[in-house]
Design a protein that fits this description.
Helix content of chain B: under 10%
Shape of chain B: globular
Number of strands of chain B: 11
Strand content of chain B: over 45%
Structural class of chain A: mainly beta
Distance between the termini of chain B: 36 Å
Number of helices of chain B: 0
Oligomer: heterodimer
Radius of gyration of chain B: 13 Å
Helix content of chain A: under 10%
Distance between the termini of chain A: 37 Å
Number of strands of chain A: 11
């Protein structure tokens, strides 16, 4: 089983749509969870950290379910500029190291 | 977030040559930096953890004699790919972990092509 699993997509959605991405992780010792965004041929950029109580940042909402070892990201009112690959990232439980999922690709169209 | 720079942004070299990549933390004194590699359509894979003033810690399967890491100051870590071969062609990215929640901030990456 992969340490971090994501649906690779692509998700093709029209502008204004709501889209949800899911991620599961295998290490029950993980304590830090993140969503990163990666544009084509660029470095990953932190989108948001995911806290136990769930958190929201504008159109983006992240949820964490520790019992099921499951993380989600909801994007409301999708914009063309949201088109990117979204990486689910989890700490390994040791020495600040992170494990990355392969990413879910989102394409927002007119 | 923290500001990290990398140089060069891309490099093309002949097989057998060595390539040095620099990673600088511009606004934070980083005792620890991380080096990743990303092949097309794959996730980032951690290669090694670079520790200021001491030896790097390499992940399983990464040859320490091939990928030389030097972290001589709190703002600079270098990765040297020695005797590069075409299979070393990849996107190399560094990061530092200055976030309070363990988040990492990445440099813009170096695209290496070995002919």
């Amino acid at each position: 089983r992969k340490e971090v699993e994501q649906d690779p997509g692509p998700f093709n959605v029209p502008e204004g749509a709501t889209v949800a991405f899911n991620c599961t992780y295998s290490n029950s010792a993980s304590q830090s969870f993140f969503w990163y965004r990666q544009d084509c041929r660029k470095e990953p950029k932190l989108l948001m950290s995911v806290y136990s109580s769930g958190n929201e940042d504008g159109r983006f909402t992240a949820q964490l379910n520790r019992a099921s070892q499951y993380i989600s990201l909801l994007i409301r009112d999708s914009k063309l500029s949201d088109s990117a690959t979204y990486l689910c990232v989890v700490d390994t439980g040791t020495a600040s190291k992170l494990t990355f999922g392969t990413g879910t690709r989102l394409q927002v169209t007119l | 977030g923290a500001v990290v720079s990398q140089h060069p942004s891309w490099v093309i070299c002949k097989s057998g040559t060595s390539v040095k990549i620099e990673c600088r933390s511009l606004d934070f004194q980083a005792t620890t930096m991380f080096w990743y590699r990303q092949f097309p359509k794959q996730s980032l894979m951690l290669m090694a953890t670079s520790n200021e003033g001491s030896k790097a810690t390499y992940e399983q399967g990464v040859e320490k004699d091939k990928f030389l890491i030097n972290h001589a100051s709190l703002t600079l870590s270098t990765l040297t790919v020695t005797s590069a071969h075409p299979e070393d062609s990849s996107f190399y990215i560094c990061s530092e972990s200055s976030g309070s929640y363990n988040e990492q901030f990445f440099g813009p990456g170096t695209r290496l092509t070995v002919l």
